[in-house]
Amino acid sequence: MPRRFWLAAISPALFACLCFALARTVHKPITTDYLRLQDIWLLPVQLGLAALMLGVLAVPGWRHMRPFTLTNRSVALLALAMVLLAYAGHRWLLLGYDLSRDEQMATFDSWIYAHGRLAWPLPTGWQGDAGALNLLFMLPVARPVAWVSAYLPGNAALRALVGLVADPALTGPLLTGLSVALGWGCARRLWPDDREAGLVAVALLALSGQVVMAGMTAFAMPTHLAANLLWLWLFLADRRRSDLAALAVGFLATGIHQPLFHPLFVAPWLVLLLVRRRWGRLALFSGAYLAIGLCWLAWPHLTLGLVTGPQSLTASGADYLSRLRDTLALADQRWPIMAANLLRGLCWAPFALLPLPLLGAGLARREAPAAALLGGVLLPLAVMALILPYQGHGFGYRYLHGTLGNVALLGAYGWRRLAPWQARLRPALLAGLVPGALVAMPVEAGLAHRIYAPFAHTSAAIDATGADYAIIGANDAPLALDLVRNRPDLANRPIRLSAGDIADIDALAGRICRGGATVALPADSFFAAINATFGAAPGGQADARLAPQTALLADAGCRVVALR
Asked: Is residue 528 helix, strand or coil?
C-alpha cells in the first residue's frame, strides 16, 4: 500500500484531535454546548470505527473481493429509504419540533407564502409591541406593520409548494433522497464505466449523519445540497439545453436562504471554463450569475417595503451590506470557533471513509474536475471563516452542507486513485460502511433526540395550558428564547412573549388583560428538563418575575397560571 494512503488514513484522526484541542478553548453559547453534549461523545465513536477499518486492512490474508456495484434501481430504492428514514426521524426522533430560529423561520415564512403573501400583516395593537413576539432573524424594523423573516424565500417557498400536496415537513426528507440519487447521477456522468466509484459517492452521502439528520429538519441546508447537485448534474452534461436548465436551477439556488452559498459552489466551475477557454459557455454563465446576484440582492429592499409603515424605524442589517458590516464586527474567537465547526463536521461525517476524499483532493493538480470540486469546498470554508465563523445550531458544519456532494465525489476520485489496490481494500471499505450504519448513525440519532426532546416537551406543556398568553424570559433556561415562537397570524394559543423585549409591561398588561385573558408564567422548575440536559442550574430569573408579574397582571384583570 503506498505511503500516501497511510498518510490519508490517519490524517482525519489527527486533524480531529487538533480541532478538539482548539475547540475546547471556545466560550460561545451553542458552540460550546454542542461540543460538550454531542461532539465529545461522538468523536471517540468515530475514531473507534476508523481504527476498526484500519485494523481490518492491517490483517493479512483477506480474500480479494470482487468490485461492488450498484444499479439505478437500487439507488432509487436507497433514495426512497432515505426519504422514509428522514421523515420518520422528523416525527419520532425530533418529535416534529423546530428547535432553532432558522428552522422556525422556514416554517413561519412557508405559512405566509402558502397563503399567497410575501409578508403577513400585524394587528395594529401588536405593532408597538412586536419585539415581545420575538423578532430574532426577522427584518430589523421597530413598529413593523407586517412581518416576515430576513431570509431569501427559496427554502420556505419550496416547503409551501410541498405543503400543497403533502406535509411540508416532507421537504427535507425528499431533498435528502434526491441528493443521494443526484450524487449517483453526477458520478455516472464523471465515470460512466465505473459503478463502484458511484457507490463510494453514494455511501459518503447516505452514511453522513449531517446529511441524514439535517434532512429531518426545516433547515435550508438539504435544499442547498440538492440544488447544488442538480446544478452539477446538468452542468456536466455540457449541452446548451442543460446549461439553460442549470441557470434556472442557479437562480432558485441563489435565493434559497442566503445569497452566497450557491455562487461559491459554482465559482470554481467557472474558473474551469476559463482554464479550458470555453469562452461562450463562460460568458453565458458569468452574465447570468451577475443578473441572478443583482436580482436577489434586491430582495431585502422589496420585503422591507412590505413591513415598514409611517411609524416604523429601520435598524442596521436591513440590507446585505449592513449585515456584512455587522457580522464582521462580531467575529470574535474566530479560529477556535472554526476549529469547533470543523470538528463538528468531522464527527457527523462517515469518518472512517474520510481518507478517500483526502486522496481525491490530491488529484486536484492534474484532474480539473477534482480541482473544481475541491475549490467548491475550500472557497466557502475560507469565506465563512472570514465573515461568519459562528454557525449556532445545526448538525455537522452546516455552512458546508451544500458542498457535501463535492466531498462524496472527491471520495469517488480517491477510490479510483487506489485502483491497483482496490481488491485488497474492499474488505476495509466494507468495514467502513457497515459499522458506520449500525453504530455511528444510532449514536447520532440518540444525541439529536437528546437536544430536541426537552424543548419539544416544554413547548407542548406551554400549549397545553390553554392560556391566551405566556411570558418567557430569554435567560430562564439555555436557549429559552427559541421557545418564543408564534404563527404569523397570531392564531396560536398561548401567544408567546419574550419577557426581556416587552417595552412597557404595565401598558401591555392594561391592553391584554382588558378582556380577562389568561397568562401563563413559568417558574424556574418548569424548565427542569432543559436545565438537566445542559447541566445548568436554575437561573432564578423566572422565579424572580413570577410574584411581581402575577400581581401586576392580576390587578390589570388577567387570570394567571403558574407553570411549574
From this structure: helix
Is the same domain home to 396 and 542? no
Residue 316 lies in a domain: yes
Q: Could you give the C-alpha distances from 323 to 123, 307, 327, in angstroms and in order?
A: 28, 18, 6
Q: 233-291, pLDDT tens digit by residue?
A: 999 999 999 999 999 999 999 999 999 999 999 999 999 999 999 999 999 999 999 99
Cell readout for 465 is 395550558
Are 330 and 384 contained in the same domain?
Answer: yes
Q: Which of 450, 482, 509 is the last residue of a domain?
A: 450
**Rg of the chain's alpha carbons, rounded to an integer?**
25
Does residue 371 sit within a domain? yes
pLDDT digits (tens, 9 = 90+) for 347-367: 999 999 999 999 999 999 999
Q: Indicate the helix (H) or strand (E) that contains 247.
A: helix 240-254
Q: 393 and 100 in contact (C-beta within 8 Å)?
A: yes
265 and 346 in a common domain = yes
407-433 pLDDT per residue, tens = 999 999 999 999 988 888 898 898 889
Amino acid occupying residue 416? R
491 and 351, same structural domain? no
Q: Residue ranges of the alpha helices (H) in 255-348? A: 261-275, 279-297, 299-307, 320-329, 334-347
Q: 344, 337, 390, 336: which is closest to 16 by C-alpha?
A: 344
Q: Is the pTM of this model over 0.90?
A: yes
